[in-house]
Model the fold of this input.
Amino acid sequence: RARRRMGHVESEEASSPIEAPVSGEVIEVNGDLLGNPDLVNSDPYGSGWLVKVRLEDRSELDDLISEEEYAELTTEV
Done:
């Protein structure tokens, strides 16, 4: 389900929850991250993906923000 906790990411500074952005069924987990968790930061749009999901409701994608919008929200002023 969307907004449901599906795991967490740990760093030296903190442990942060990961919430599912959409509803659906997890069909694949990126096992490469177990041996190389830094991929999440170094290649998030490539080899650092977390899970593949079969969408339950495609319209939930309309509620997500783009990569550019995310960058604007997280860039220091």
